[in-house]
Amino acid sequence: MRKILLIALALGIVGLISYWGFKMYQFGEVVVQDVELREAHALEQRIQSGDIIFQSSKSAQSKAIQLATHSPYSHMGIIYEKQGQYFVYEAVQPVRLTPLKKWIARGKEGHYVIKRLKNADQVLDSITLKKMRRIGEQYMGKPYDIYFEWSDDKMYCSELVWKIYQQATGIEIGALERLADFDLSHDQVKAKLKERYGDQIPLDEKVISPAAMFNSDKLMKVDSVIILN
């Protein structure tokens, strides 16, 4: 009888511990979700349509881009507000709108930097933003350009953002370069160029890089979460 009571007591203690453990887990989940919601709300209070967001992507070509441009930022897009929600218009496969939270989470450890035109309050009025979206719509659904060609048939990330701004506002964010202007000396860069072009590397191809746009003196930083190595 005593043995049965001890077993029952032990089972009761285990059950109590399991119950409180589950409750604490639920509480922790609620706290995390609450923090995430508050952080998302705080971010949305600081940003606006037309802002440009940068991240270090986890794509196969990201490291080669970083080495060639001497910058941690290998992907970017334009932030737009749509029906109370924020999205990033980006050139991936294919060109599309991606929810801002999902876009941030997709980057390296969720780190990002958001920048804005220094004179955005004079330039990015409602008419100009509508024009930017209208111009951007012509690229919606176009395939990603792995060859970084300066054409409108396919798009890569910085090309999409640069062309939308240039065509809608006349502002060129970042200087255009040639492929030969980048640091092509690293083995990873050489391997990626070989994979894409074989022995016919188009060194004179016009290119705009995320790094050139990130470093533009026409932009100012609005928000960031940075722990990039």
Can you describe this structure?
Helix content is 46%, strand content 18%. It is built from eight helices and eight strands; from the N terminus they run αβαβββαβαααβαβαβ. It has helices at 2-46, 62-69, 100-106, 120-123, 126-137, 157-169, 187-197, 210-214; strands at 52-55, 75-82, 85-91, 95-99, 112-117, 177-178, 206-207, 219-225. It has a six-stranded antiparallel β-sheet with strand order 4-3-2-1-5-8. Strands 6-7 form a two-stranded antiparallel sheet. The longest helix is centred in the N-terminal third of the chain and has 45 residues, at 2-46. It has 229 residues and is of the alpha+beta class. The model has no long low-confidence stretch (mean pLDDT 87). Helix 2 packs across helix 7 and helix 5 crosses helix 6 (157-169).
